[in-house]
Amino acid sequence: MKQVSIATLLKKKQENQKITMLTAYDHNMAALLDEAQVDVILVGDSLANVFAGEETTLNVTMDQMLYHVRVVARGARRALVVGDMPFGTFQGKPSDAFHNAADFLRAGARAVKLEGGQEVA
């Protein structure tokens, strides 16, 4: 069973093939999505809302995200696991952002998602 990589996704894009991506927060869902041959599994900071009942994603911590990345990565043997960097973990010093991203890779993610920017009214 060949693991999905960034190169796999680029090839699919070049060949105009569809790429599938779904979110999982636990081992069982990751295993099911992997068996269904989903290309990318995102461990999103939305776990704050969906899994923990928070009103926003602002309170999710690195430790929480790393735990969920670990259990999802154990369930996903084929899919590319992407860890979502929580708020405040990459907006400061570049070296802090690098170390936090490295923690995601050590936990089993094979890619890291950053989001941010400026809202326009």
Cα-atom Rg, whole angstroms? 15 Å
List SSEs in N-to-C order: HEHEHHEHE
The secondary-structure class comes to alpha/beta
Q: How would you sum up the global shape?
A: globular
Q: What do the pLDDT scores average to?
A: 92
Spans where pLDDT lies below 50 across 5 or more residues: none
Q: Give the strand tally.
A: 4
How large is the share of residues in beta strands?
5-15%
Total helices: the number is 5
Tell me about the largest β-sheet: 4 strands, parallel
Strand order of the largest sheet: 1-2-3-4
In angstroms, what separates the terminal alpha carbons? 47 Å
Helix coverage percent? 40-55%
List the helices and strands and how they pair.
Elements: H1 6-14, E1 21-23, H2 27-35, E2 40-43, H3 47-50, H4 62-75, E3 80-84, H5 94-107, E4 111-113
Parallel strand pairs: 1-2, 2-3, 3-4
Helix pairs in contact: 2-4, 4-5
Describe the structure.
There is one protein chain. The chain is an alpha/beta fold. It has five helices and four strands; from the N terminus they run αβαβααβαβ. It has a four-stranded parallel β-sheet. α5 links the parallel β3 and β4. α2 crosses α4 and α4 packs parallel to α5. The longest helix is centred in the middle third of the chain and has 14 residues. The chain starts with 5 loop residues before the first helix and ends in an 8-residue tail after the last strand. The mean pLDDT is about 90.
